[in-house]
Amino acid sequence: MGSRMLKVNSLMKREISQIVQQELKDPRIGFVTIIGVEVANDLRHAKVYCSVMGDKAKKDESMRGLKNAKGYIQSELGSRIRIRYIPELHFILDETLDYSMHIEEMLRKIHDEKPISLEENTIEDDQ
Fold first, then answer.
1. Are 76 and 19 in contact (CB under 8 A)?
2. Which CATH class is domain 3-114?
3. Helix axis angle, 70-80 relative to 56-68, nearest 10°?
4. End-to-end alpha-carbon separation of the chain, Å?
5. What is the pLDDT of residues 78-115, one digit of tens each?
6. In what order do the strands lie in the sheet with 88-93?
7. Listed residue (54, 36, 57) closest to 98, CA to CA
8. Which of 10, 30, 119, 121 lies 20 to 30 Å (CA to CA) from residue 43?
9. What is the pTM of this model?
10. Burial per residue of 66-83, b for 16 or more beta-carbon CB atoms within 10 angstroms, e otherwise
């Protein structure tokens, strides 16, 4: 990926984050963090990776709110960013953070379990 595309991705991420956090008034949209943006080389489409705090229902509701606000977000981007095309946004729920927290919790549980002593579990032969 060229440096121009990296700049476009970074700029899109910053602007979308600002719009979502400060301008959207949809009550369905909860605590949403824009994790990253990948703009296609032809600038026609952009994948917007989002992380949402909450349970599955809250995540689904927030994603529906983002998808409904897509037109507004795209028009705002058009007035803020000077590029040939404003890409069509595709919001994607990124559950990497949830997965890593789950793994960390499992590792913590394994670490907290009392280790079994080898002497207690030996089988003695009666010969």
1. yes
2. alpha beta
3. 50
4. 71
5. 999 988 889 999 999 988 777 777 788 888 888 787 66
6. 32-39, 45-52, 88-93
7. 54
8. 30
9. 0.74
10. beebeeebbebbeeeeee
